[in-house]
UniProtKB/TrEMBL annotation:
The keyword Coiled coil applies. Residues 22-49 form a coiled coil. It comes from the Eukaryota. InterPro entries: LRR_dom_sf (IPR032675). It comes from Roridomyces roridus. Keywords: Coiled coil. This is F-box domain-containing protein.
Length: 521
């Protein structure tokens, strides 16, 4: 350390030295500057020695590392575990599997020699024009590495080079087992609609917008008519009914069908019947439904439809009278193996339409008689009262999984604001008696959990079978509300998994990307 400066008291001040003091300072600085140069030289020498020793240690540690001693089959299992658990891996050099080829020559040879690493791919068709050739070559190389394995391909986006990308898909179409297409037009889809894909087992299609008049050509296209096709998912922001062909058609091979829609995209009763009638072997069915208020002569079916293998039915309602849904749709279905039944309002619509509660209890009796095995149920208190909810659970005493929805409509017909939540609160107090086998409960509301605290705590204190409780609130939790949130630690120590989620604003319909299918790209 340098000696004490005679100007110590003036440092870091606005003091102005005299001429003699300035000469004194100039004479003092060179020796310190020389010492600093010497220290910097020493630091560089020590740093070089440090880096050399560290490199020696690291290189020799690498020789004895466990990774070098791993058998190739173990490395391959590790590589497979690096792939995403949801969706297809992206064409991204910073993610698996591409990044695995950038570590060392050994890993590169192992990765590039594993067809299973390259049998699925998600890519965008919106590459800049200057990168198009390189991008399409990378896609082709990826799929070539998959050998002869069945492929899962996911594409996204509209492009002026659509023909070139579709040539790639055509080249590998004989091996495609799963095909996801999103954010493209129906016109673009029709370029590949006639592909020969004999292994195709699943197809998902979410167009950016509908080309009116072309919708029916989608379901009638060769891709959707393949004999091995089992699972179909379609997403439309509007006019889902326009998909369903007017002429009778049959999907005997189809087992899983999901038709999701935005604000005005649900099926009408007529199109829903036509579609369901053509899919007699479904195991899972999910679709959005709306009433066609423009019909001069509303459709009222008279013949029942039997779905002998259907195990799960989900109907999302928009601008619909639930009594109409039960009478003209649910009551017309015979589903002896049904175990999962969800009928609720769609969260993508602005809740400003009249919503009269369910009054036709006879339809519930019919449902219980025809589908006695239901153990997974949704109760939406926009449509149910405490009385009808109790009646419904009395018909299904074996319920193990229950979802309660307690949102509000802004126009409720003859119901007052807040009635849905009040009915749900009173209903929760009766749950332990109504559902003696309940193991999983989901509560969804636009209000804070504090509105339900007393009823929830009472239920948790009395239940002996519950194993999981999910609470999903679409509201802002302010500081005052946080102080009144119930403490669930006691119940967690008893082994109940309790999750509380706050989201605001509530989830709305997005563009036709595969986020609509629970996949984010």
């Amino acid at each position: 350390m340098p000696a004490q400066s005679p100007f110590q008291e003036h440092l870091y001040t606005n003091y102005i030295p005299t001429d003699d003091e300035m000469d004194q300072i100039r004479a003092d600085l060179p020796q310190h500057e020389a010492e600093l140069v010497s220290l910097n030289k020493l630091i560089r020498e020590l740093t070089a020695r440090h880096n050399g020793i560290k490199a020696h240690i690291d290189s020799h540690r690498a020789l004895i590392s466990y990774a070098r001693r791993l058998p190739q089959d173990i490395i391959e299992e590790i590589f497979l575990a690096c792939l995403p658990t949801e969706g297809c891996p992206k064409l991204n050099s910073r993610e698996a599997p591409l990044i695995l080829g950038h570590i060392c020559g050994l890993w590169r040879s192992i990765a590039f020699g594993m067809p299973s690493l390259w049998s699925s791919l998600h890519f965008s068709m919106q590459a800049p024009w200057r990168d198009f050739a390189k991008h399409s070559e990378a896609i082709t190389d990826w799929l070539v590495r998959s050998g002869e394995l069945p492929l899962a391909i996911s594409t996204w986006g509209e492009t002026m080079y659509r023909e070139h990308y579709h040539q790639i898909i055509t080249r590998f179409s004989h091996r495609i087992r799963s095909l996801h297409m999103s954010d493209m037009t129906v016109t673009q889809y029709l370029l590949v609609a006639g592909l020969d894909a004999p292994l195709l087992d699943e197809i998902r299609f979410a167009p950016r917008y509908w080309d009116h008049g072309l919708g029916q050509r989608v379901l009638l296209s060769k891709l959707f008519r393949g004999e091995n096709l089992r699972r179909v998912t379609l997403y439309s922001l509007e006019d889902m009914w326009s998909f369903v062909p007017i002429a009778p058609f049959f999907w005997h091979h189809l087992t899983d069908l999901s038709l999701e829609a935005g604000d005005n995209g649900g099926l009408y009763c007529r199109s829903a019947h036509r579609l369901i009638k053509g899919c007699p072997n479904l195991r899972s069915l999910k679709f959005a439904f709306q009433t066609d208020w423009s019909e001069d002569q509303p459709f009222h079916p008279t013949k029942h439809i039997t779905l002998p293998n259907l195990e799960s039915l989900t109907i999302l309602l928009s601008y619909t009278d639930i009594n109409h849904v039960y009478k003209d749709l649910v009551d017309m279905l015979f589903m002896p193996r049904l175990t999962v039944f969800h009928l609720s309002h769609s969260r993508t619509i602005p809740r400003t339409s009249p919503c009269p509660p369910l009054s036709n209890l006879e339809c519930l009796d019919h449902l219980a008689a025809r589908s006695p095995e239901i153990v997974n149920l949704t109760l939406d208190f926009l449509y149910l009262t405490k009385t009808t909810g109790v009646h419904l659970l009395q018909l299904f005493p074996r319920v193990e999984t229950l979802q309660l929805m307690a949102d509000e409509m802004y126009t409720l017909g003859n119901r007052t604001m807040g009635q849905s939540q009040r009915d749900a609160i009173e209903f929760i107090k009766l749950l332990n008696r109504l559902c003696p086998d309940l193991t999983e409960l989901v509560l969804e509301s636009e209000s804070s959990i504090t509105e339900f605290s007393e009823a929830i705590i009472g239920f948790l204190n009395s239940t002996t079978t519950l194993r999981r409780f999910d609470i999903r609130c679409s509201c802002v939790l302010d500081s005052e509300a946080r102080e009144t949130v119930p403490d669930f630690q006691l119940f967690r120590r008893r082994g109940i998994v309790i999750n509380t989620t706050y989201t605001y604003p509530p989830l709305k319909a997005t563009s036709g990307q595969f986020s609509a299918f629970g996949m984010a790209f």
